[in-house]
Amino acid sequence: MSHSGEQHQRPGHYGYVGFATLPNQVHRKTVKKGFTFTLIVAGESGLGKSTLINSLFLTDLYKDRKVLNAEERISRTVAIIKHTVGIEEKGVKLRLTIIDTPGFGDAVNNTESWRHIDDYIDQQFEQYFRDESGLNRRNIQDNRVHCCLYFISPFGHGLRPLDVDCMRALHEKVNIIPVLAKADSLTPAEVCRKKMKEIKQFGINIYQFPECDSDEDEDFKTQEQILKNSIPFAVIGSNVQVESKGRKFRGRVYPWGVVEVENPAHSDFLLLRNMLVRTHMQDLKDVTREIHYENYRAQCIQNMTRMVVLERKRRWVELRKMQEVLERIQEQMQHSHRSGC
Ligand code: GDP
């Protein structure tokens, strides 16, 4: 058998037990089970959320969507709409759930318009907490939200109060990834300016990319650094295929030229998709489970313990009162006995 630094034994060699196949066993089992990922999209309507989701996952998740007019939108509160789609690639199945929040930021008064998103995330944690504390823990459906793509408007002067309030309200519960919407409407210098440290300045804790181990190769480290520097990702979405110079691609055609969604010179779309799907999906799920859900769970247990202590205290006070009444009755009886009544 080999220890680190010693010679490795090959299959068929003396001393080969076979635990080197463990990763394959895990791989087979997880592939069979399939994967799930839940993403919430937030940001005011018209910022290109549905277009970007369709472009990211090459699906049409919003076929039945009805876009409301201004009058209908004024009175409407934020809705939570769940779209689920099963996608498969090379035998790997992914059940993707997108939680949409139509109406976000549409009302005249938008204070606390993020409250519905906040409640939704909590409800999923609560459901999971109940399920895993219940009797049948085998087939728990995990609907916890793994990531929130928060769309920042490219117009105006940076973050709006609603953006700051919303991200601050959610940052301890979900991995927030901010994106700068409709980046094709900005010049490179404007993109650069909008990426400045505003998010940190407001004390918003967005999703932190895991630190690279020192033994990782240089390419990987550079890639990770590029990702960190790109936040918020400046993105472009499109639902149409464009044909130009003999090539077909997702893009947007303007009188002055064509923007390619997947061209790194035009936007950070590819960076975002690679990060979300190819490199960090598992980490987003791990952080949800190990940090956000654990915090929720610890809080729940703390509240439950506090309630038990309060209940005990209440019962003790009641008991004490009853004891006092009994003592008083006893005293009265003794008194009347002594006075011979
Ligand atoms: P949602 O309400 O946030 O889901 O926004 P939609 O995806 O429905 O997009 C609203 C409008 O913006 C549509 O007319 C889209 O064609 C357009 N749009 C979507 N993405 C982009 C983009 O990246 N750049 C530009 N310029 N327009 C976009």
UniProtKB/TrEMBL annotation:
Q: Which residues form the Septin-type G domain?
A: 33-303
GO molecular function list:
GTP binding
Spell out the InterPro entries in the cross-references.
G_SEPTIN_dom, P-loop_NTPase, Septin
Q: Name one Pfam family in it.
A: Septin
This entry carries the following GO cellular component terms, namely: cytoplasm
Keyword check for Nucleotide-binding: yes
Q: In this UniProt entry, which residues are annotated as the site Important for dimerization?
A: F155
Any idea which UniProt keywords this protein has? Cell cycle, Cell division, Cytoplasm, GTP-binding, Nucleotide-binding
- Coiled-coil regions in this chain? none
What is the protein name given in its UniProt record? Septin 4a
Name its species. Maylandia zebra (zebra mbuna)
